[in-house]
Amino acid sequence: MDQIPVYNPAEIEPKWQARWEADGLYNADIDPNKKKYYVLTMLPYTSGDLHIGHWYPMAPTDARARFMRMQGYNVMYPIGFDAFGLPGENAAIKNNIHPKVWTYKNIEQMRRQFRTMGTMFDWRREAITADPKYYRWTQWFFIQFFNNGLAYRKYSPVDWCPSCNTTLAREQVWGEDRHCERCHTPVIKKDLEQWFFRTTKYAEELLNYDSIDWPERVRTLQTNWIGRSEGAMVIFKTEHGENFEIFTTRSDTLWGASFMVLAPEHPLVEKITTPEHRAEVEAYRLTASRQSDIQREAADKEKTGVFTGAYAINPVNGARIPIWIADYVLMTYGTGAIMAVPGHDERDFAFALKYGLPVIPVIARLDGVTKSVVLSGTVKDGFADQLKGSGIQFIESEGHLLVTMKQSQVDDFIHLAKSNLKNDAWIELVGATWKFIFTDAIIDFDSVKNDQVIMERCRKINPVVAGCRTVMEMLSGNTFYKDVLFHADYGDMIHSDEFSGTPGKTARYDVAKWLEKQGWGKVAVNYKLRDWLISRQRYWGAPIPIIYCPKCGTVPVPDEDLPVLLPDDVEWKPTGESPLKLHPTWRYTTCPKCKGKAERETDTMDTFMCSSWYHLRYLSPDYEKGPFDPKEYDYWMPVDSYTGGIEHATMHLIYTRFFHKALRDIGVVEGHEPMLQLRNQGMVLGEDSEKMSKSRGNVIAPDKLVSAYGADTMRAYLMFFSRWDQGGPWSSTGIDGTSRWLKRSWVMVVEPPLKRRSDPAAAKSLRRKLHQTLISITRDFETFEFNTIISALMELSNEMIKHKPAVWETDAWHEAVETYLKILAPVAPHISEELWCFLGKPYSIHQQSWPMIDMEAAKADEIVLVIQVNGKLRDRITLPAGVSDEDAHKAALESEQVIRHLEGRTPRQVIVVTGKLVNIVI
RNA sequence: GCCGGAGUGGCGGAAUUGGCAGACGCGCACGACUCAAAAUCGUGUUCCCUCGGGAAUGUGGGUUCGAUUCCCACCUUCGGCACCA
């Protein structure tokens, strides 16, 4: 007899990897007779610092790709490298190596490491984004966008480190005080002319996910990011006739607009600021420009602003209202200008109180509560008793009456108040009703004008309030009113001329439509999504293929001159300018149109641009007539299954969808979406449950583990140790369990049983388990539930080991072993190939079909009937499968346990769940 | 503050449609093998218990014969957004 081989992954894994590659086993070529399946995993960045996290999206995805292959699909699973970008440039600066050298050295290392995983990557399709034959087409796409009006240039602020003399990306700015990552100098904003893509043009379409199977979580993140809100554009005029537009979602509050606020950067500020306010306005604008977005956008920050001296006219009521500037209004959202309705917007309310601007309520309270504080000495004696008599609730506090009334009691209260009010006093109603009762008049608090009228009277009557600038300021001094001064609910309109009484449900739309008719505005939709800034003042990226000609203007580089090569001999260390600007010759060129002297754009492109179309380059990485070979496109696209981290939900995954839709409209690609299915893996954490990082020293490096356990064990453990979409901490003891299981599987196949045993039922029971496992694993591969795939395989092997002495060398055993190896093959490709070979089966197991499920064999011929009394488990009875409900019922009532628990009582009800359970209710 | 996940043994996790809670694995305990250890194999392992049972899937309530699963409220926790007019 042959020697029994020992499981040695270090020997068999490289052996099979070499063989598969030599045979081109996983080469994916167009085959019109087969259904294609394009599997894609997010391309790795060339950090050179490969840890287990890089395996996590790839290994289980690979197992699934192999499963699809065995299901008969023509599967393509390509890989490449995201090779441009800041980390590379920084690492190179730090170690004084050219970014190109650093990057390509890392790629070498990563290729080697990825090969040890035993993935079915088709390496012929590898694409590297920093390769000129790749970025030639990145540049070509830029020009397509430019020619189709989707790329434009405008001034935009960037973060700038005055010490390093360079622009910084958002992730390079650290801490609350926003200092430079390298030298800790606080960063400033600098306005630079930069290139943008019109992502906003596709905002609406990007919200539609009908044709794609993407996780709800990603769709929600993107939807929130795009931030659609419906409202109206309203045209306001300054009192000198300049028009300006504002966006509002609450056109129903238009009558309550008591001031306007412009973003400090708003272009109109320059024009309208009056000479006496100019100094203050300029100072404020300067402070705002120095502040970071984070400082400006901190919601808990106290609101600040300054008056411009100018006034606007509210189109609906002609009110003359002051125009302020404040940094809580953002130039980047809407029109950078708002109407402030402090009665119904929390921010405006805080601002109005601080600066003494009038607050006018124009929307009814939903709870209908009105409050009034009746000060001691303002009414005749007996007023309190009369209130009691009318059933109006109040509490007494230091002689004052704190009244809270319902809508229906307001008229009674007014009547009583008026008849009891002493001279030189007033009583106010606050909340659902806003009225000031004076001895000679009742004045509605319903307009900016009446705000002043009321205040003038009050100041005269009570010197205590003489310092109050507005009614609301006066009322806010009383804590009893605190909860009724402001609300943001959709109540019915009040104090709004002919619109008063319009129900809250439809008010916004009614007003917006009316504005449209008047020519004062229009129904509008606004998005938080902004256009994509793609300029980077950096070296290690694809140059933007634009030439600036003094005569012809902005000229795209002609196709035949692409790629605009990134020069190697450049000072890539930070100097304060785009490195390409400092190159002695690169920058200077001739205009493609007039052949006169011209200059190149010296900024490079955001790397998200490179990663927006890499799935297209994989189709034909060497193709020269276009970004991809249309033949390949027609066969393989769209991507059928895409896997990667959730952290890309709002960046890469929006950009790549935008890219595809834009290219569709330009006529380069077809279909509405690039990736049909998306699944996100979680993150593998260090053993300390913290994010893996060099500084923490908790990084799990794959190389050591591969030599200790083998790639198969690691692949299986990555699938097993947690829910894949969730991730979790790595466990160095946990992996032992997976390793033991593969060793047991090996021994199970290669070693004969020590003792033989007779068990006539074993074969049938084994087949049953085998086909049940097949059912569950087939299902779990489809649903990305990798952990239960491994546990099902473990269960099956446990069962096989148990039955082995009884079925050794029978047909049932051979079927079980062959099937077991086939379903193990996607998970652990090396050990299954080796054992397949050991059994004398023809190479390769990876060209086998997924085993057929025998539903008959999977059926149990006995069932365990669960017997409950009052929902509590009392007995289990084994019965033949397919037992009738009547027989199950009968058997349950005959159970000794049941009889004991019935204690002679008759069941009220018996519930039978066919083949599963009987519940006896007494 | 708003939006969205998630809470199950000592740990990771499992549980088709509402039907045996804790599969599978780790860890632990005991046993076998060994001079011994490692490795391997076997047995046990939610908690309480008067050995009849009882309690238990974040908490409290509800629907149901029956709830980890459905509904309501709350708590904890993770992620995203955060002055978005």
Please characterize this protein's 3D structure:
The protein is an alpha+beta fold and 922 residues long. The protein folds into 5 domains: 186 residues, HUPs (Rossmann fold); 148 residues, Alpha-Beta Complex (Isoleucyl-tRNA Synthetase, domain 2), CATH 3.90.740; 117 residues, no CATH class; 150 residues, Isoleucyl-tRNA Synthetase, Domain 1 (Orthogonal Bundle), CATH 1.10.730.10; 60 residues, Ubiquitin-like (UB roll). 36% of the residues lie in helices and 19% in strands. The chain has 30 helices and 37 strands. Strands 10, 11, 12, 13, 14, 15 and 22 form a 7-stranded mixed β-sheet that branches. The chain has a 6-stranded antiparallel β-sheet with strand order 17-18-16-19-20-21, with helices on both faces. Strands 2-1-30-31 form a 4-stranded parallel β-sheet, covered by helices on one side. A hairpin with a 4-residue loop joins strand 5 and strand 6. The longest helix is centred in the last third of the chain and has 22 residues. The two termini are 67 Å apart. It binds one RNA strand of 85 nucleotides through helix 7, strand 11, strand 15, helix 11 and helix 23.
